[in-house]
Amino acid sequence: MKLEKLVIAYKMLDDAKIKTMDDKDAIKIIKNRKAMRPHVESYDALLKDAQEKFKPDNIEVMQEKASKWKELSAEERKFVNESFKAYQEKVDAVCKPELDKEVDITLDKLSEDGVLKLAKENEWPMNKLDTLDIMLE
Asked: How many helices (H) and strands (E) does the chain have?
């Protein structure tokens, strides 16, 4: 499975409420997050490093300008946009290839009932469950 899908699923489950789920499915979620964690933490460290290393010297000035967006002239807005875009492109150049990598991981499968309870308890739309198909029976 692609690392990107794993990262998204991990972060979804990080915020998930699991109190109404059967204990067996809740335990599987906790164990699956444990199995995912080393991959996600490694990626998060890479992302943080890229963000820090490529951070422009004038980032605080750009953030200040962005916070006053409505007061900026068209030329100033263009400059702010181009600055953030250049920064983001550098970060993406480092991180995107990593997200596209295949990860070898085995996850415990949840029951259909467990998945439905997870969706209901968290008020997730059904399309959000596509991300969690990695844990479906």
From this structure: 5, 0
DSSP assignment of 16-63, as one string? ---TTS-HHHHHHHHHHHHHHHHHHHHHHHHHHHHHHHH--TTHHHHH
For the chain, give the percent of residues with pLDDT over 70: 99
pTM summary value? 0.84
* Helix axes 23-54 and 74-99, enclosed angle (nearest 10): 130
Q: Which amino acid is at 86?
A: A
- What single letter denotes the amino acid at residue 3? L
Q: Give the CB-side neighbour count of residue 44, counting CA atoms within 13 A.
A: 11
CA neighbor of 4 nearest in space, from 90, 93, 103: 103
Q: How far is CA 67 from the centre of its chain?
A: 24
For 67-94, the pLDDT digits (tens) are: 999 999 999 999 999 999 999 999 999 9
Read off the amino acid at residue 137. Answer: E
> Smallest Cα–Cα separation from 92: which of 100, 80, 104?
100
Q: What per-residue confidence (pLDDT) applies to 137?
A: 54
Question: Residues 36, 12: contact at Cβ < 8 Å?
Answer: no
